[in-house]
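Recall from the previous chapter that SMILES is a line notation for molecules. Here it describes adenosine-5'-triphosphate.
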Amino acid sequence: MQEKGSISIHTENIFPIIKKFLYSDHEIFLRELVSNAVDATQKLKSLAQLGEFKGELGDLKVRVTVDKEARKITISDRGLGMTAEEIKKYINQIAFSGATEFVEQYKEKDAVTKDQIIGQFGLGFYSAFMVAKEVEIWSKSYKDDTLTAHWICDGSTEFTLDEPTGEHAKAERGTDVVLHVADDSDEFLEPARLKGILTKYCKFLPIEIEFEGETINQTAPIWTKQPSELTDEDYVSFYQELYPFSEPPLFWIHLNVDYPFNLTGILYFPKVKDELQFQRNKIQLYSRQVFITDEVKDVVPEFLMLLHGVIDSPDIPLNVSRSFLQADAAVRKINTYITKKVADKLSSLFKQDRAGYEAKWSDIGMFVKYGMLSDEKFYDKAKDFALVQNVAGKLFTLPEYQEFVQANQKDKSEQTVVLYTTDAEAQHGFVQAATERGYDVLDLNGPLDSHFIGQLEQKLEKTTFKRVDADTVGKLIEKEETTESVLSDDDKTKLQELFKTAISNEQMHVQVEALSPQDAPVIITLPEFMRRMKDMQRSGGGGGMQMFGSLPDSYTVSVNANHPVAQRVLQAEGEAGQKLARQAFDLALLAQNMLKGEALTAFVKRSADLLAAE
Ligand SMILES: Nc1ncnc2c1ncn2[C@@H]1O[C@H](COP(=O)(O)OP(=O)(O)OP(=O)(O)O)[C@@H](O)[C@H]1O
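With both inputs in hand, we obtain:
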């Protein structure tokens, strides 16, 4: 038999369209052809299991070979093969069943994305024409008494199909797809390039793939196995295989679901201390063990992109456009499922081994906070296992911490005031003052913490957060009782004026306060509200905030009426009083790391004078 015919598409040539628009990456032709070879082999294995194929399975390797001289790439399998009739059915017609529609669509809308087509029309085999000027199929079906089928197509819509016998007949069951590489695709004749492509896409295919005498793949990657069959070492060594030279992961989650969608995979929590180190796009997406992409945006929730590992699902519409993907119901369910799994894993780690969990907190804290900030459902679960750390290094859950500070840190309107520092070194004096008062201070120095604080204030009832240097210690948490002032009202006014003149700075608002004699003589603070506004402005957020223009610095200078220095300033005459006031103010600046330049030089000189005068 020899037959010539037209591939049944009722339109002019589709190949230029395939070639130009279909895949941005020409290299994936190999993925498509090797996947077909693997599918054909697996189908044969299934038939054997069902007893429908009774012959010897024999060597089932898929072999990829390249002949640079002859400009040929061959993909050979020993799968179920095709008869000439089947080639007509599967290659000539089926692949293009949707093509007419596509071409029509394509004519109307330029904007139709190339990605949309692939998923819809299953043009897998025809991707060969991205790199080949002619493609041959040599195939022999597993069925008894079938002839070799030989198909040739040069990239036009014309094909030739015959059934050679004698020396041209194929001896063994299976299919050879031979690509005659086009002149503009020389790169694919390089063995190193082909090996690279095979390693990228075919590394975990379920049937052995051989190229130049070497096996490319592991046929049973660990995510396809049952967790009960695996040891910790298996997980760790798989991680190291995926990400050579990485530190071992902290822990992992084995995903395995078959209803209402199909998904397997392993997600690893990487060991990282610093947000900058987080590497996104580290999760690899597979469909039935064929690598698709490592851009998993939209398939997994944003915050989970900090994780590493593998997700394998045939239910993810792999080749459709982004906007479609976001709206896809399966993708949304997958998102929800993964988020829930991750939260459950963290929760069980927390419950089963609190100490181990605490030890990992510095690595996972950022991730958990990021998740809480970006996903309400995750927040709801994580609020019971998110931890905060106080300056003494003790870790608490949020409910535990609220309980811990409740007795001591309620203000007169029954609000719990949580005190925190963003830099325990720089804010040392304030931290110490608060601690001496019996208050607890949290260390919230991470890059996400200012957002986290905002979120907690919204979520936790009757709770506000104040940075330790937002006010003098007596006023951080406003109570009914007040410390009596040893100064008369007249003296207070006099003291205030003295300091105002000595400081002579509009941005420094001087007030006299009755603090404890043990507190510093002068304390400079930036009110919480003001600092947050400024932070917001700096980070470019806050929407309408920009309307107010740049906010001026506005500090509160609290002069301690009960400190002996206040008395001395009042008692000293004229110049000397000013000098003492300025000195006390400069000390406060120094404590805040705000004393710089000329003022610092003047301070050093004045200190020397004062020492000499003693
Ligand atoms: N090596 C092969 N051995 C046996 N049959 C094959 C082989 N390659 C292709 N076929 C047949 O040709 C059909 C069309 O292949 P094609 O790659 O175009 O689409 P597909 O594999 O069905 O879908 P996809 O778009 O996901 O690749 C296959 O479904 C299969 O029946």
